[in-house]
Amino acid sequence: MPSSPHPAPDGLRGDTLVDVGCGPTIYQLLSACEHFQEIIALDYTDQNRRELEKWLRNEAGAFDWRPVVEYVCELEGDREKWAEKEEKLRKKVRRVLKCDVTKANPTDPVSLPPADCIVSTLCLEAACKDLAAFLGALRNIGALVKPGGHLVMLTVLRETYYAFNKQVFSCLRLERNTVEEAVESAGFDVKFSEVEPYLPGDGSADCEAILSLVARRRASVTG
């Protein structure tokens, strides 16, 4: 694993966390729910939001995340706390809203107060067709976080397509330096950046690596 030019920041915490492009999943929020009082989940597709809401309401037929929750709890020190963590996450996700990262206000017509932290996991590279759109989307979601707040981002590098359920989707091919420069130009200072090699091996995608990044929004945004 390459060494990071940016040291990992201290634990992130605060009142409100916004998950941009949450999909139908909860894995990305399992640790976050221990450090934030309120979580707002955003996604573009109605189907993804419905699936998430099904799990949040503990409805019949909802996806069973228990094995994943147990694994996260084990990493945190106590596998047996899985039910407690599920309950905590269900209570903390207060809103599930439609969002479009290409809009200046991604949650239009709803206006959200600035959050302490935004999370974006494997979203923007799939939502943006070119680098200009990627830069614009970063600026748009960046406006959702307060000055001094944080952006936590997970993105794939050098991927042009991914396949799911026999459908092939295009993906914006990104390099590490491109992502870091885009984050900086959106008004953030990169505090942590790390690349891990990743080769799916089954032909479902052609990505070569995963980039994990944490950045802090500057007090004044210029440029």
Automatic annotation (TrEMBL):
One family name in Pfam for this protein: NNMT_PNMT_TEMT
Family membership noted in the UniProt record: Belongs to the class I-like SAM-binding methyltransferase superfamily. NNMT/PNMT/TEMT family.
SUPFAM superfamilies per the UniProt record, alphabetical: S-adenosyl-L-methionine-dependent methyltransferases (SSF53335)
Keywords assigned by UniProt, alphabetized: Methyltransferase, S-adenosyl-L-methionine, Transferase
The protein's name: Nicotinamide N-methyltransferase
GO biological process per UniProt: methylation
UniProt keyword Magnesium present: no
GO cellular component terms attached to this protein's record: cytosol
One of the record's GO molecular function terms: N-methyltransferase activity
Binding site for S-adenosyl-L-methionine: Y27, D43, N48, D100, V101
This protein's record includes keyword Transcription: no
